[in-house]
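User: Can you fold this complex?
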Amino acid sequence: MSYFMIEKMEEVKLMNFEKKMKIFQEDLKKKFDVAFISPGLNFYYLTGLSPASTLERLFLLVVPADGNLVIIAPKLYQNELKSSWISNIVYWEDKDDPYEILKIFMANLERKTGNLLIEDSMPSLILINIMKYIGQYRLEPISTVISKFRIIKNEEDLKCMERAADIVDRVFYDLIEKNLEGKTEIDIATLIDQLMRNFGAEGTSFETIVASGANGANPHHTPGNRKLQKGDLVILDYGARYQGYCSDITRTIAIGHVSDNEKKVYEIVKDAQENAFRSVKAGVKAKEVDYSARKVIERCGYGAFFFHRTGHGIGLDAHEEPYITSTNERILENGMVFTIEPGIYLSGKFGVRIEDDVLVKKTGERLTKAKRELVVL
Amino acid sequence: MSYFMIEKMEEVKLMNFEKKMKIFQEDLKKKFDVAFISPGLNFYYLTGLSPASTLERLFLLVVPADGNLVIIAPKLYQNELKSSWISNIVYWEDKDDPYEILKIFMANLERKTGNLLIEDSMPSLILINIMKYIGQYRLEPISTVISKFRIIKNEEDLKCMERAADIVDRVFYDLIEKNLEGKTEIDIATLIDQLMRNFGAEGTSFETIVASGANGANPHHTPGNRKLQKGDLVILDYGARYQGYCSDITRTIAIGHVSDNEKKVYEIVKDAQENAFRSVKAGVKAKEVDYSARKVIERCGYGAFFFHRTGHGIGLDAHEEPYITSTNERILENGMVFTIEPGIYLSGKFGVRIEDDVLVKKTGERLTKAKRELVVL
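Assistant: Here's the predicted assembly.
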């Protein structure tokens, strides 16, 4: 995934990253010696850099609690890193052993409490290699520290997220002007991805889901060769990425006509989504939002057919904190953004899901605004 | 990445997977208690299943050296796993703690040598969590065991790889019929991806590279908004995926006209690639192939501008063993497939790279066959 690369970083943005890094380092000090951050969303969050690195070549941002940052990078990326605001970069070539560089760095560390922070998405291959070279440490995933910063979106983050949300809304309105009957799920997924790019997305925030007819009963269905036909309900679940930030929307539409039962189930899901949305405000718990959706569906007798959480936080990651589950006691705060996406899945028959991205303020505010009334094409 | 999902597995394929798994388990016994395999290419190689799982939900294939396989999966994937030939699946819901299931499994293991095999691409978050629950083990990346199986392609693998190679050839011939001048790198990358799908690819095997003019001097350039203009050399590096298997091709083309110097550099790279190709046969070392490319470029005085390895193995992974580096002593065997992709990169000016996928037999055999003579559009 190569989401966004700041080619020439503006002064303001640069200061932003230096500031973020400083706050992170201050926090790191409380418990850890060093953080090891492989390329990914936290790397981007802290540096503005998003190198498209490969699994087998070590590419690492090393952040000590005290002292200077260093990036260990394959020489291959020298050009790409020219504009980096981090000047301390050790390049290695294919004939070198990059873990030796790390070993030397660690041997020279003054601080030795034995606690390391590790990028969540770092491939285990790299972590195992690191451990072989530097010995035993107590490891902690970086999300335990960094998510408290990332969970609150600032104005700049929100500008990007609003734009990403606007893109998926436009795609929806464009899509329902087209004739989708007879097209395969894959056709439509490809079309959605293309439309998102046309409207300014750098890419998708996850693999687009198009689930038609009985496939809709599988919440994470992979689009296949099934053709959309009259009488289908079709779940469209997709997201755009803008300057690294994600949106995520789901709408369920009907082809040709809709049965009374399908219509009934649709309205239950829509009410559940609306009820959860209305429960959002700073100060309530995540689980209360989950409950607000769940109780509507349970009351109507479909509780057993809504078997996933109500939503997930969203930002640089398509899935991040806060998770909207039945057990999450976390109190919602201003600036948090998450999805609300209840669904009902009737195996062998059909599924319905409706999803919006919601920002927490005094009340909730929908970032995705495409209409939720059932569209019959 | 969701490459390929066998929806209804044929009898033959099913036997194939059961056989592969048995061979793997036999080998596992030599040293390990268990292998933990998160979704990805090894998961697919051994099971034919490629669930599109998420980072934060535990989805694990547990292969004990003795005893029965088990899959620990979020309940969300129940439908997707219905056709699985592995019947022992423990589903968990968002309210459960899936690591407790793993803990119980490990407590009941009879074999306790203390060695664990871990999927290379498993996110560190999951590995750290696993370790917290099951305690200390000696960890080894799964590639150290499984690559000796995956490195030799059988007839079925090769059928898929030939098809994937054929797709990228067709895309090249299609592309050079078009007018590319004035289009941005992103436009062309999008077009290439679309063409690959049109010709039957499930997707790309990596992020498509289009690097024009001076951008070509960066081997891993991310396509940007630069427009192709007369006098540009343009590097096109892309790959298709077919039934999970990858191809990877690079061609460098010229827009409008080409200078004498560019033409000279182009011919050096082409000769280097050809020379390396001719050196391929079962029995020679990987480093000899690297040397065969490198010496042509060095002899012409451009040694310093070819600063990456000559190639990498390819199969289910776009990058896998054998790596064609200056130090790899591995002896090439029948059925191995790798890329040969020398390049010359002149910072601030331009770059040239030519790449084919080559199968080892008595001699080498190119899977990608698109013409290598310089095309001037």
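Residues 186 and 269 of chain A are 26 Å apart (CA to CA). The longest strand of chain A covers residues 233-238.
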